[in-house]
């Protein structure tokens, strides 16, 4: 079979110059690569693998086919090993001068593939852009945007293409690195007159009941990545912190959740808290208010809190006192 192909090609190239023969071989290689790429893609799409596995197989096969094609074409245009090395040297020098940015992007792709600062499916922030990674290639990676005008880091639906070179010059945050979970906090402000100890206990029960149960899983993930990251987390269970503010007592509900479940868990916990405060007479939400103190014929309007944080006393018929 192979001898027939060689004889066919020799007959086809008879009468052609060396340059024309190499152009013919290059064209045949490109056609074969295209056919092979189509065949592999179609075969993978017919499998019963999950979408993520199909995506990874497609990307890996593409890289192998493209690299094989580049090597095949390079050998076609070189007569022997020494000229091939010379060819690569001249090609590299020319590309470094003419295509600086694309080369840096390819270096960024190499860094992303082998150092793995993130992978497809991770939620990241690079510079001002935040989103879920949906694709990577030689020159850029693609995210579907979150946040911006949408609250609680939900998807906006916009696709953002970011050059791979950004990983060298811009700080990159990965929501899924380390323990694959993030800490979320919900601040609940209640009045000074409320039974804050009871509120703290009730809100902790809410967290234990409705917060994602990830403490055991997070500990396993932290143990598995202990050789890569130096993380000192010791407490993974939900907790409620207490703090005094101008308007009342601030109870901060802190718990672990998956990055993409932040809004869902926040909504569920808030709905439960609203029901508890509504049904419990010992609890009441705090908000900016003013108190009027009557002393004889004079009114003292003392703000309970102000927007600018000042503490003024307005005296009816008298000047303001700072």
Outline the structure in words:
It is a single chain. The protein has 3 domains: 2-98; 121-174, Roll (SH3 type barrels); 182-279, 2-Layer Sandwich (Alpha-Beta Plaits). A hairpin with an 8-residue loop joins strand 3 (140-146) and strand 4 (155-163). Helices cover 46% and strands 21% of the residues. The strands form 3 sheets. The chain has a 5-stranded antiparallel β-sheet with strand order 4-3-2-1-5. A 3-stranded antiparallel β-sheet has the order 6-8-7, with helices on one face. It has a 3-stranded antiparallel β-sheet with strand order 9-10-11, with no helix packed on it. It is α+β, with helices and mostly antiparallel strands. The protein is built from 9 helices and 11 strands. Mean pLDDT is 79; it is low at 305-322. The termini are far apart. It has helices at 2-13, 18-45, 51-76, 81-98, 100-115, 166-169, 196-210, 215-224, 262-279, and strands at residues 123-126, 129-136, 140-146, 155-163, 172-174, 182-190, 239-244, 249-257, 290-295, 298-303, 314-315. The radius of gyration is 32 Å and the shape is elongated. The longest helix is centred in the first third of the chain and has 28 residues, at 18-45.
């Amino acid at each position: 079979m192979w001898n027939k192909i060689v004889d066919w090609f020799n007959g086809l190239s008879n009468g052609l110059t060396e340059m024309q023969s190499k152009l013919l071989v290059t064209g045949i290689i490109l056609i074969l690569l295209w056919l092979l790429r189509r065949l592999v893609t179609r075969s993978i799409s017919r499998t019963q693998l999950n979408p993520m596995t199909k995506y990874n197989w497609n990307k890996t096969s593409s890289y192998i086919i493209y690299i094989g094609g580049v090597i095949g074409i390079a050998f076609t245009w070189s007569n022997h090993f020494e000229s091939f090395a010379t060819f690569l040297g001249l090609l590299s020098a020319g590309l470094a001068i003419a295509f600086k940015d694309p080369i840096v992007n390819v270096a960024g792709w190499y860094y992303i593939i082998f150092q793995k600062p993130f992978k497809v499916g991770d939620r990241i922030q690079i510079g001002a852009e935040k989103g879920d990674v949906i694709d990577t290639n030689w020159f850029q990676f693609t995210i579907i945007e979150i946040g911006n005008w949408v609250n609680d880091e939900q998807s906006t639906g916009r696709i953002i293409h970011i050059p791979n070179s950004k990983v060298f010059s811009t700080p990159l945050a990965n929501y899924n690195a380390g323990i694959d979970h993030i800490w979320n906090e919900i601040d609940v402000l209640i009045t000074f007159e409320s039974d804050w100890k009871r509120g703290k206990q009730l809100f902790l029960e809410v967290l234990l009941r409705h917060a994602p149960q990830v403490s055991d899983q997070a500990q396993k993930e932290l143990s598995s990545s202990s050789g890569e990251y130096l993380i000192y987390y010791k407490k993974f269970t939900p907790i409620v912190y207490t703090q005094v503010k101008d308007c009342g007592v601030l109870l901060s509900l802190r718990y672990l959740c998956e990055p993409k479940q932040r809004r869902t868990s926040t909504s569920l916990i808030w709905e439960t808290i609203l029901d508890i405060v509504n049904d419990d007479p010992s609890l009441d939400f705090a908000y900016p208010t003013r108190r009027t103190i009557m002393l004889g014929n004079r009114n003292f309007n003392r703000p309970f809190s102000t927007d600018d944080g000042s503490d003024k006393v307005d005296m009816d018929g008298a000047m303001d006192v700072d």
